[in-house]
Amino acid sequence: MVKAVWQAIDGRTIAPGSIEAVWHAADGTAIRRVIWRRTDEAARGSILFLPGRGDFYEKYVETLDYWASQGWHVTAADWRGQAGSGRTTADPLVGDIADFADWIDDLAGLWQAWRAATPGPHVVVGHSMGGHLVLRALAERRIDPDAVVLSAPMLGFATPIPRALQRVYARVMNRLGDPGRPAWKHSEKPGAREAARANLLTHDLRRYADEQWWQVERPFLKLGPASWRWLLRASQSFDRLDAAGRLETLQTPILLLGTRADKLVSWPAIARAAARLPRAHLAAWGSEGRHELLREADAVRDQVLATIDEFLEREAPIR
């Protein structure tokens, strides 16, 4: 395998040679994906990257490009209902889903098609909600990658409200009105101010500004708050992963990356999951890291990428 020599890109560029296309789920829903810097050269393996709620793969072009520079065949995809994939709700700006199982079905189908078309070893990387869905698909034996990387996986919410009370409140709010209505007004979580949104995500204001640039350049990428139905389904999905024995039998090597200062997802939930997974590797940051570790300032992001590199060299070696 010969590593290609790339010139690093900025966060506002789709690299030459990349292929943006659509894969169709079983029900016909369009799932947008990108094959990053597609070449005919032999790869050291393949990475499938899946972003978080409200995300789009354009936010991660620097990281996709980095992995390509290391010789990986890189693919990224948007979840149904957001970014460039098919919107399925009455209000396309509300993050809503009938059931998280719909996303698991999409991932299972995409995984089968992607694995058949790409060289191994096969690695799946999920961020935030994407990390949750990857872990759930793995636990339900819907995917079988050689290794998994979970960046700040959404295994619980960063809130002092107990999980049981969260679930009860979400169920009540679903019954009191349209379950598809927004559960909050601004930013990434209830009570957060839009002006302070960057403080939830990254210390790197340039990378934060890249997100806004893409939403102006490609308005279809915009998505607002999640629905009350999404909150209830998230709570129910957390319970599925928390079930006794669900994680303890998984033998896939899994790297969990998180920050103790995360204000969106629960660090204790990530640490608990790592303790239950037989082949887990846990890497943690403190206040120097915010939720989007792959879009953090270089001092942290470089550490994150190096940690992933070391894990993959050990657990997903070249065949």
Task: Please provide a written account of the structure.
The chain is an alpha/beta fold and 319 residues long. It has a single domain (19-315), classed as Alpha/Beta hydrolase fold, catalytic domain (Rossmann fold, 3-Layer(aba) Sandwich), CATH 3.40.50. It contains nine helices and eight strands. Strands 1-2-4-3-5-6-7-8 form an eight-stranded mixed beta sheet, sandwiched between helices. Helix 3 (129-139) packs across helix 7 (228-242) and helix 4 packs antiparallel against helix 7 (228-242).
Task: Please write out the topology.
Blueprint: E1 19-24, E2 30-36, E3 45-50, H1 61-69, E4 72-77, H2 100-117, E5 122-127, H3 129-139, E6 147-151, H4 163-176, H5 198-201, H6 205-217, H7 228-242, E7 254-259, H8 267-276, E8 280-285, H9 298-315
Parallel strand pairs: 3-4, 3-5, 5-6, 6-7, 7-8
Antiparallel strand pairs: 1-2, 2-4
Average predicted local confidence, pLDDT: 94
Strand order of the largest sheet: 1-2-4-3-5-6-7-8
Q: So, CATH architecture?
A: 3-Layer(aba) Sandwich
CATH class: Alpha Beta
SSE string, helix = H, strand = E? EEEHEHEHEHHHHEHEH
Let me know the CATH homologous superfamily.
Answer: Alpha/Beta hydrolase fold, catalytic domain
Q: Features of this protein?
A:
319 residues; alpha/beta; globular
What's the gist of this structure?
With about 325 residues, the chain is an alpha/beta fold. Helices cover about 35% and strands about 15% of the residues.
